[in-house]
Amino acid sequence: xxxSKGYFxxxxxxxxxxxxxxHVMAIALxxxxxGREGIIRCIMSRTGDVEVLGYVxxxxxxxxxxxxxxxxxxxxxxxxKNENEVVQxxxxxEFEFIGLEDPDIWxxxxxxxxxxxFTIPLRHKSRKGTVTHLGHAVGKDLTSLEMTEPxxxxxxxxxxxxxxxxxxxNRKGFRYNLFESSDRKTDRYSTVRVxxxxxxxxxxxxxxxxxxxxxHEIPWIAGHASPGPLLPKDFIDVGEGKLLGIMxxxxxxxxxxxxxxxxxxxxxxxxxxxxxxxIDWVSPEPFIxxxxxxxxxxxxxxxxxxxxxxxxYAHVDDSFVRAYTLDAEELKKLLPQ
Length: 337
Hints:
It is a single chain. Helices cover 4% and strands 50% of the residues. The chain is mainly β.
């Protein structure tokens, strides 16, 4: 594997689609299994072009299991108790549910319970647009999950809520978690906000917007920003009360006739002050663009392997998942002094 700027791109594909799915993306792994078991989003059908505004995916969450950290097999659809009841209550008669998306797994160190967070997208039946909530389920493991009410409820004034990054507890005893939201004034940008979480299983409080692409002159993230995994302090230490994080960023939208076309999605770095819920720095250049990517490299999971090495997983063009080995000492060379 060729070494480049703090990471190795693994040969081959960590997860490939099979005859059941058009696309696979957004892997999330259970740390209690040493990253060998988890969940993945599978696209059952797609209408439109992923590079053009307005495409629609219909998704399911499926289990994955790996004999190694380099290759996983996709299993059955994830069964979540109470899913239909919760979703129907949210959708009512006005919206259409198009499937759970983009999971994240967090394990409560005190109770050993598994908390799974995911996107709940609801399309308006009578007009354009989608309302996107950040959903939640809890259980002992992947076989015993039960859905609760969403931890973040979006609406036409707040913007969307998806793609969570779980922060450590701060000194005040709560978490400033990060999530992807949207600019409701123009709806042209994806932004990063914080949510104050005092209980990881109950509704969180909407917080401040902490990164808006239009307020920074950073071309690789000029249109859309979405927080990825926060890297553990044991892997790389960037200061007291701060963590190095992975940021997914997309170039600004382009207008071509009647179409709005998306730019390249790449993986970058950021430094997060989790004590105060502030982003201190975002890398001026992207960190990873997959060698096969035509439009998307999007990171969703990190597995620490110790001794300054870890594996980052990202999906490429929504078609497969790739693994990359990160080197902490090399990463430090990319950070501000």
